[in-house]
Amino acid sequence: MTTQYVLELIGTYFFAISGALAVADIENDLFGASFTGFITAIGGGTLRDLILDSHPLVWIADSFVMYAVFAGVLTAILFFKWVIRLKKTLFFFDTLGIALFTVLGTEKALSFGAPEEVAVIMGIFSAVMGGVIRDTLANVTPVLLRKEIYASACMFGAIMYLLLAKFDVPRDMNLLISAASIAIVRTLAVRYKLYLPALGKWK
Amino acid sequence: MTTQYVLELIGTYFFAISGALAVADIENDLFGASFTGFITAIGGGTLRDLILDSHPLVWIADSFVMYAVFAGVLTAILFFKWVIRLKKTLFFFDTLGIALFTVLGTEKALSFGAPEEVAVIMGIFSAVMGGVIRDTLANVTPVLLRKEIYASACMFGAIMYLLLAKFDVPRDMNLLISAASIAIVRTLAVRYKLYLPALGKWK
Amino acid sequence: MTTQYVLELIGTYFFAISGALAVADIENDLFGASFTGFITAIGGGTLRDLILDSHPLVWIADSFVMYAVFAGVLTAILFFKWVIRLKKTLFFFDTLGIALFTVLGTEKALSFGAPEEVAVIMGIFSAVMGGVIRDTLANVTPVLLRKEIYASACMFGAIMYLLLAKFDVPRDMNLLISAASIAIVRTLAVRYKLYLPALGKWK
């Protein structure tokens, strides 16, 4: 049981919570919440694995991924009133999810022989595409396209992972440092209202 | 020519009709209607086959799938005025489509060695993802996320299929019984306004 | 370096520009613009290759595809004020993109042994699905579903490619003629306000 594996399950759990809660304000029944929780949790990784031609998909080969999704959805359902009031909770789970998935996705792409720039993109994809699908289903503009440090924090972390790997930082430590850097960048950016300039307003 | 094959063509035909009609109220030309009919009919199965790594995709290997789509789109175009007035007609075609695709998707996933809980999800995916894509394109909230027994009826039928298979019910009969159970559950649910509780309102 | 390869890079470049600009009116930062530019440029081809089971994907195997995307996004960013004012510019880039991708997609599907009607659909998919994803992300009704000659122009060009190939027109010339025919059909259709009849109003 590797660090990567444990982190992947934890990330899946976090994403399932954030997905189940995401459509809570539209008329959504328990099944719909489970569905969006599931899609959010496995969407990014599924897209990554399809693109890399990595079969069987993680959640098909390993039932524990599915259990992590179930646990996340159940957490969202059971602690709904508690969890939904705290907007920060949602933010917290989503941030942990993207942080973990970015570095895991980057690493997986490298292990499939992808060039480094592709690995960075695969890391970002793993992290954000589940949420993009979730937002698209719920008919809201994906957080990615709103003026917020989001996918750019993932890019930062993916590049940090590549750099630390070049300096021979041990893999488990690299995973944790790079993931933490994503969470920190995003949290600081939201706290201090930092953002990238809009297109056409950057100069 | 197996029962499964014939049912798949019929389900494809029904889905193509429902897809072509789905965007009838937005400015949509004949080509756009054909496109959404096509996407709705093959979307769920395509996603299922990509996830299961089942190549070549059914509609590439077998031209009859395409002909079933063409027939469905043509039906929608030729009998438009007649068909669109009857909201029940659309409901009817969509219900038959999801009923057939759920059991076929479940069975196919099993034949690819997927564990049972994954097979249930693949069955639901085959049935509902075409419609989800259709609704997303037409910019309406997917029926799946509205408070209605829809994907949950598919789950019911997929589990029934697994149970009946355990009791050695002959395959063709199992296919028909399980599909019928989905259509019945959904129809009863709509008729008697049954629905699952919304997230956060279930206790 | 074949004609096909050069055309593919040029088409990618055009699509990246159109994708980066597409969401310029919603709050979108430089990263978001890069993301939609990337998705628009590689979305159609990625879907085509996943469906055909053609691995590794073009943009993973060949870094020049990525550079073409970067160049397109950079063009959009640097010449934003100049480019965004000219609605015709966007139309121009998008038209060249769909023209090139249609014939390339059709040809690729044929080379994978797809039947001719599937090859036509794969050509259309390569051309329009990037834009469909782009429009879906930006929460606008895909151009495809609006009353405009768009995907139907692609279908015209794909069929022309098949016909010319039957008459043994040399491949490079065929590629250029068929792509040009798409650009011409679409441009004429927009100029003279030609469109296909809406569903239910065609007779």
Describe the protein's architecture and organization.
3 copies of one chain form a homotrimer. With 203 residues, the first copy, chain A, is mainly α. Chain A has one domain (3-191). Chain A has 9 helices and no strands. Chain A has helices spanning 3-22, 30-52, 58-61, 63-78, 80-85, 87-111, 116-137, 151-166, 171-191. The longest helix of chain A has 25 residues, at 87-111. The model of chain A has no long low-confidence stretch (mean pLDDT 85). Chains B and C meet through helix 2, helix 4 and helix 5 of B and helix 2, helix 7 and helix 8 of C.
Provide a brief overview of the structure.
Chain A has helices spanning 3-22, 30-52, 58-61, 63-78, 80-85, 87-111, 116-137, 151-166, 171-191.
Strand and helix map with partners:
Three copies of one chain form a homotrimer.
Chain A (H helix, E strand, L loop, with lengths): L2 H20 L7 H23 L5 H4 L1 H16 L1 H6 L1 H25 L4 H22 L13 H16 L4 H21 L12
Helix pairs in contact in A: 1-2, 1-4, 1-6, 2-4, 2-7, 6-7, 6-8, 6-9, 7-8, 8-9
